[in-house]
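Researcher: First entry.
Model:
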Amino acid sequence: MFTHSADQNTDGSVNLSELLRVIQFFNSGGLSCAVPPESTEDGYAPGGGGNQGCTPHASDYNAQDWNISLSELLRAIQFFNSGGYHACPGAEPPTEDGYCPGKV
């Protein structure tokens, strides 16, 4: 299973504290790689303009620009509301981020 970056405990769902972290990135105008990565719970730091040498956050996909847009935030909220997500790279029609709502 491909774990979404917002899913810090890797249980296949986005809980409230994990969703609030994505909201923090949205409200802070971006995100960057935490240095060192262990200094935060997910390896990312709020605020744009920092180190971008790590794997981009899965919520930052359209366009991948180290900034969480409203539509990207709403996608994380969809995963929260649906009780989970799963990787679906071959979905028809394809999804923008490679994930589908709901657990399998």
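Researcher: Second entry.
Model:
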Amino acid sequence: MLDTTAKELAQGKNFAAITTLLPSGQPSTHVMWVDADDDHILINTETGRQKFRNIQNDPRTTVIVIDAANPYRYSEIRGRVVGTVTGAEAREHIDHLSEKYTGGPYANPIVTERVILQIEPERVRTQG
């Protein structure tokens, strides 16, 4: 379960960095929009992206959500992707994120299917 600060940061207009493992074992980190429900950090990506292939190969991940108003306040969430959501729900979710971050609907072309990664925390550390 997420702690209150991690959930608050993820649901706010704050950016996150997600780290996944490439097939070689080398870490790969991407700055992303982020969200949360009561139990999971939520990352929305596409099924054709490398980060999704990485998660399919190894579900371990770390997400750091940084407070936009105070970058010394952040939550580091280490865990695993325990579920994925595709279809209309994932498409609606990227529009929700776009509204949160840009104030408008998601305008980038979708090349492959949208997918929500549901990350279950195993360790949460909050600073600030």
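Model: Note on the second entry: The longest strand covers residues 114-127.
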